[in-house]
Amino acid sequence: MILEIYSFSTLTSSIDEGLNSVMAPWLVTLTEFVIVGIVFLLFYALLGLFLVYLERKVCAVIQNRIGPNRVGKWGMFQTIADLIKLLMKELITIKNADKFLFNLAPFIVIITSFMAIAALPFAKGLQAIDLNIGIFYVMAVSSLGVVGILIAGWSSNSKYSLIGAMRSGAQIISYELSVGLSLLAIVIFSGSMQLSTIVESQADGWWIFKGHIPALFAFVLYLIAATAEINRGPFDLAEAESELTAGFHTEYSGIKFAFFFLAEYINMFIVAAIATTLFLGGWMPLHIGGWEGFNQIMDYIPSIVWFFGKTFVIIYIIMWFKWTFPRLRIDQLLNLEWKYLLPLNLMNIVLISFVVLIGLYFK
Amino acid sequence: MTLPVFMFYLLAAVILLFSVLTIASRRMLRSAVYLLFVLIGTSGLYFLLDYQFLAGVQITLYAGGIVVLIIFSILLTSHISHKFKRPAAWKLWMGLTVLVFGSGTALWVLLLHPFSKNPAVKDVPVDMHLIGNQLLGMGKNGYVLPFELISVLLLAAMVAAIIVAKKEKK
C-alpha cells in the first residue's frame, strides 16, 4: 500500500482541528470554504499560465523552433507578461450586442470548468468533495459549458461568432455521447461512480491493464472524443482562424477573452485528469502483481507526483494531436462521431458487460 | 438559523427570482438563460437533500440537454434585435388575477397540510447501487417493466422524428 507519510489527510484534518479549537462550527465551515476556494483559484490560475507556456514550447519543438525565449530563462515568464498585457487591455463593448448576455457568457464557461475541477482526486486524501456520483457529476457540470459558448456566439451579433458557436455547439453535444459511453466502460469494471472508489479499485493494477482489450479500446475512443469535446485541434473548426477569425470569441477582448482562453486550457487538464483517474489509476503508483520489491520502490514516489505525471503525459498526447493532424471539415467531424465512434462505443459497452459478467478480466 | 436552512432560503430566493424573470423578460434568449438558472437552483435543492443522483440527472438532462436544445433553436430562428411587444392591459390583468388565485390556492393547501418528519427517512446520501438495483429489478418494487416500456416509446419517437425530417427522394 502507499506510504502514510505522503497522505494529505493528516494535513487537512490538523487544519480542521486547529480551526475547530478556536471558532464556532459554522465559522469553521465558512473559513474552510474560503481556504479551499482560494487554493483552487490559485491552482487554476497557475495551471492555466503553465499550460499556455507548455503548449507554446511543445508546438515549437514539434515545428523545429525554439519557442518563447526572451522573458526570463527559457522564456518562463512569457505567459505572465502576456497575462499582464491582457489585464491592461481595453474591454470593448459592442454597440448592437446583447450586453447582459455578452458579459455573462465568459463567466458561465469559466464557472463550469471550475466546478468540474473541484471533484478531482489529486492525491491520497487531497480531494475537495467526494460525491457519490463522482464521474457523473463531472460529466453533468462540463455539459453546461456549451451554454456559455452558444450565448457568447449569439450575443456578439456577428456572423463569425454565430457560425463558430453553432459549430461548437453541434460538436460538443454530439461528442458528449461518446465521452460518456467510453467512461461508462470503467464504471462497469469498477462497479462505482465515486472517484475515490474507482481509484482504490486500481490498487493492484490500472484498469487499462486489468481490463485489457476492451479497456484499451475505451481509452482510445475516450481520447478522440474528449479532444473533440474540448474544441482542440484537429477538431478545432469552431475557431478555424482561416475562415472564422476566432469563432465564438471573436468579439471579446482583454480579460473576457482571457477567460475563454483559460477555460479552454483548464478543460484540457480536466479531460486528461479524468483519463488518468479512470484508466491510469489516478494517484495510485504503478504496481505489478508479484513483484514485491518493485512495488515498494514505486510506493516511495509521492501520490501527487504520480497524478500530475500521468496527467501531463496525456496533455502532451493531446497537444501532439493538435500539431500533427490537419483540421477536419464539419461533415467529416459529424460523420466520425455518429457513424464510427458511437456505434463502436455501443459495441464496446456490450463487450465489456460480457467480459465482466463471465469474469474475463484480471482481478 | 443553521447552514442548510440558510442555503434552502438562498436557493429558494434564486429559483423564485429567476422564475419571474423567465416569464417577464421580453428577449427570448434571456428567458432561456434565466430558465437555466432556475433549473440549476432546483438541482441545488436536490444536493441539499443529499439526493446526488437526481441532482446530477437534473443538471445533465434539463440544464445541459433541454436548455441547450432551446438555445440552439433560438439561435437558428430568432434575430438579436427581436423583442416581444408589451402585452395588452387586459391580458396583463387577466394573468395577474389567475396568478393570485392560483398561488392563493397552492399556499392555502400547503399551509393546511400537517408536515411531519418521516422517521424512516435517513439523512444519508442515496447509494447509486440501490437506485440501479431498484430501476432494473424484477422483484417487488422493481421498475424494469416501466423502464423498458419508456425505452420503446423513446425509440418510436426517434424513428418518427427521423421519418418526418427525412426528405423524399425525387
Write the layout of secondary structure elements.
The complex is a heterodimer of chains A (363) and B (170).
Chain A: H1 9-22, H2 25-62, H3 78-88, H4 99-117, H5 134-142, H6 145-155, H7 159-190, H8 195-200, H9 207-210, H10 212-229, H11 241-244, H12 254-279, H13 292-299, H14 303-324, H15 330-357
Chain B: H1 3-24, H2 28-48, H3 52-77, H4 89-112, H5 128-135, H6 144-165
Helix pairs in contact in B: 1-2, 2-3
| Measured distance between first and last alpha carbons of chain B | 70 Å
- Taking the alpha carbons of the first and last residues of chain A, their distance comes to 17 Å
> Which percent range fits the helix content of chain B?
over 70%
Q: What portion of residues of chain A is helical?
A: 55-70%
What is the CATH topology classification name of the largest domain in chain B? Four Helix Bundle (Hemerythrin (Met), subunit A)
How many separate domains make up the residues of chain A?
1
Structural class by sheet pairing and helices of chain B: mainly alpha
Just give the CATH class of the largest domain in chain B. Answer: Mainly Alpha
Mean pLDDT of chain B: 85
Q: What's the overall geometry of chain B?
A: extended
Radius of gyration based on Cα positions of chain A: 22 Å
CATH architecture of the largest domain in chain B: Up-down Bundle
How many alpha or pi helices of chain B? 6
Query: Taking Cα atoms only, what radius of gyration of chain B do you get, to the nearest Å?
Result: 21 Å
Q: Low-confidence segments of chain B, ≥5 residues, pLDDT <50?
A: none
What's the order of the H and E elements of chain B? Answer: HHHHHH
| Biggest beta sheet attributes of chain A | none
Number of domains of chain B: 2
Helix/strand structural class of chain A: mainly alpha
